[in-house]
Write a structure and sequence with these properties.
Helix content: 25-40%
CATH class of the largest domain: Alpha Beta
Radius of gyration: 23 Å
CATH superfamily of the largest domain: TPP-binding domain
Shape: globular
Length: 442
């Protein structure tokens, strides 16, 4: 049931409410109407006293909301205890002074010479070689008509998300959810096809990092914004790192190279409660995750519904391919955990422990190597700003002729000192190995 203006008028003025939005958000606070515009704003509990000050309007302290996007609401007691996030303390935290940041350009130039076999850049995700009329993911496929007319896929999905949050639009939301399943399937397939190549810039990168940690005894942090598993494969093949659980990514007591994936990964999933089977028509069986995606899309199920079925924290898929036919529904009833490409909307889709430890370890960084990353991820840039804004950081950017990342660092790390470097991942690796140079300057 969507909230109406009449429902809004019946809300108590003396109570806090928990509001559930169809696009997955849950907010606790109050709604306030501004006159004479008639616009309605959500005000958090911490801003209510400020709202009551003379001259303050809802727009000064709240955020605009469309009440028809609210599908459930209930009174929340003012003294309701809020669950504090887990702290995940680091016992004997590692010395971590060096950071590598990887973006889509790194996987695109991973060393595979045949262009049609390379992992795609953002604007290639919906090309004909990846998706067609027979696709399992029709919500993603039906977006291709629009995507054919834009070169900025991130701006396109940002526009869609802005519309979803401004207006009740189940059709648009169901397509976005379907795209998330499609990208999960796509990058599982890409990762499997690109396993263990003879020539790999990722393998060479891992060997260079391993040389550094063996020589110094320090840890190195890698922040990878890619969904694929090419780096995990290189870490496995070159220094025998297995990735059986999410803890393996950040096991600083047994490993020197720590891997963080803020935008999720094609092997990050959250299991769904068995009651999700209710979306299937009679006599249908849940044979594949694509079956789940298909009926979520056909039935215009919203994100609030899907999140209400979550049955656990982020875990690893545990296999290198998508199951297409199974008699065990538990293997395929999960929600992929990755952030589809947006222009401005940014969030972390990673285990909470990873996020807490990444935040902590960044404070010790004194040198950064950036490969194929534009630096436009607002939440991560804010984290860098909070941790490194007043430090003098040495930064090497391997980003071709695109200087976007340096412009972004101008806000988050204004005291950065930039090092000269090759413009491509392949040229950078060749430069380091050909001249027997260390990946880090000190």
């Amino acid at each position: 049931m969507n909230m109406t203006y009449n429902d809004f008028n019946q809300l108590s003025n003396s109570d806090l409410y928990e509001f559930r939005f169809y696009y997955g958000d849950i907010k606790v606070g109050i709604l306030a109407e501004e006159h004479p515009s008639g616009k309605i704003y959500f005000v958090s509990p911490y801003k209510i006293n400020e709202l009551n000050q003379p001259g303050k309007e809802p727009s000064d302290v709240g955020e605009p909301v469309s009440i028809d996007c609210i599908i459930q609401w209930k009174i929340a007691a003012r003294n309701q205890p809020y669950k504090q996030p887990s702290s995940f303390p680091l016992t004997n935290p590692p010395v971590t002074r060096k950071l590598i940041i990887l973006g889509a350009g790194a996987s695109y130039d991973c060393g595979i010479t045949a262009k049609e076999q390379r992992p795609p850049l953002a604007n290639e995700l919906f090309h004909d070689r990846y998706i067609g009329p027979g696709s399992f993911y029709q919500g993603a496929y039906q977006s291709c008509a629009d995507l054919a007319h834009t070169s900025d896929i991130e701006a396109y999905f940002q526009h869609k998300w802005d519309r979803i949050t401004a207006h009740y639009d189940l059709n648009a939301l169901s397509k976005v959810i379907n795209v998330q399943f499609y990208l999960h399937d796509l990058f599982i397939d890409i990762s499997k096809k690109c396993l263990n190549p003879k020539v790999s810039n990722y393998k060479s990168l891992v060997n260079l990092v391993d040389d550094y940690v063996v020589r110094t005894g320090e840890h190195v942090a890698i922040v990878n914004f890619n969904y694929d598993l090419l780096l995990e494969d290189a870490l496995n093949k070159c220094i025998k790192y297995n990735f059986d659980t999410t803890d393996d990514y950040v096991d600083y007591q047994n490993r020197k190279v720590l891997l963080f994936k803020p935008h999720g990964s094609c092997n990050f999933i959250r299991k769904l409660h068995p009651s999700i089977m209710e979306i299937l028509p009679p006599h249908f069986e849940m044979r594949s995750v694509s079956t789940l995606a298909e009926f979520l899309y056909k039935q215009n199920r919203d994100l609030d519904y899907l999140l209400s079925k979550i049955n656990g924290e982020i875990e690893l898929l545990g296999r290198d391919e998508i199951i297409r036919n199974t008699d065990t529904p538990d293997l395929v009833t999960y929600f992929p955990q990755l952030l589809i490409p947006y222009k401005a909307k940014d969030s972390f889709v990673m285990p909470q422990k990873h996020e807490v430890w990444m935040d902590h370890l960044l404070s010790g960084i004194d040198e950064i190597v950036v490969i194929g990353w534009k630096g436009t991820e607002a939440k991560f840039q804010d984290l860098l700003r909070r941790r490194l804004q007043h430090k003098r950081i040495s930064i090497t950017t391997v980003t071709g002729t695109d200087d976007t990342v340096r412009k972004e660092f101008g806000q988050s790390i204004p005291n950065a000192v930039y090092q000269e470097s090759a413009t491509t991942f392949s040229a950078y690796i060749q430069q380091l190995i050909g001249k027997s140079k260390s990946i880090f300057s000190s």
